[in-house]
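Sharing a chain and its predicted structure for anyone who wants a worked example. Both blocks are below, sequence first, tokens second.
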Amino acid sequence: MIEEKQSKPALGVFQKYLTVWVLLCMALGVVLGKFVPGFASFFSSLSVAQINIPLAVLIWLMVFPMMLKIDFSSLKNVGKHPKGLFLTWVVNWLIKPFTMYGLACLFFFVVFKGLIPTGLAQEYLAGAVLLGAAPCTAMVFVWSSLSDGNPAYTLIQVATNDLIILIAFVPIVALLLGVGGIAIPWLTLILSVVFYIVVPLVVASLVRLLVVKRKGLDYLNEKIIHRLDPLTMVGLLLTLTIVFSLQAELIWENPLHILLIAVPLVIQTYLIFAISYSGAKLLKLPYDVAAPAGMIGASNFFELAIAVALAVFPTQPAVALATIVGVLTEVPIMLTLVKIAKATKGWFPSREETHS
């Protein structure tokens, strides 16, 4: 049985001001790429089979600490909140990727047609699709905690979605990119998921199992995960600096595009939250299940999206740019959704009422 009492994660200084850090790293990366060309060329040269080694290491630093938080033993409790889980799965995998694709097409190819060249629009579409097909993992623990969500349900939700990612991410991305007329390097796409999801997930699961068995869960949370958490943010910020240095010319010539990319991403976030949250109300779920159900779909596993963008589209930097804009917008938007959720807590029955 999962313990309901868990340490409540909160936004640290890096997470709370993530948008500010991202903007600073974007600016630093562009300046380095534009005025210190040797910086970008040095990192470009450190590639093997189209995989940039420094970026691969940094992405592992982002992903591995998050994977340590996933407790797959929670799957034995998967029947505790079945309606909430089915709602999450349907929204995350049968609705979210397709609404993201639709909104991206609408804005990049229709609304902003005169502002974004067709070639760049296709690359931005690919980045948006990668974001839309990757629901949040680790950060949802923070959003759930801030909105007074049920930690046990959140844990099950994250664990099941991580397993679904292994099966559904590649075919959904391939389908939507294929429909969008974007060439799919299938082998690279599959290998990137294996390298950035399967391998760190297996390694983290083994480490978690051994540490919990020998030292206990408190030791894992307080001595290992707590100390490794900063690596996620450091890895992310260093990755952004390097990526933006590699894309300096593109961004320097098209600064307005960052705002244009943000428009469908912001609309998508609020739309998916509205769908999940409304679905939870129709299903008469308790608030502490409804809140995290809305949060996981609204936020994105942007670390995976960035990693796949860099691996699958190494010569099309605008794809990675679109995924990074998702990082830029996520924290302020999710904080507004936390406030919306807490302000509407009275819309939902209490846990006692759902069990009466």
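Comments welcome. Residues 13-354 form a domain with the Na+/H+ antiporter like fold fold (CATH 1.20.1530.20).
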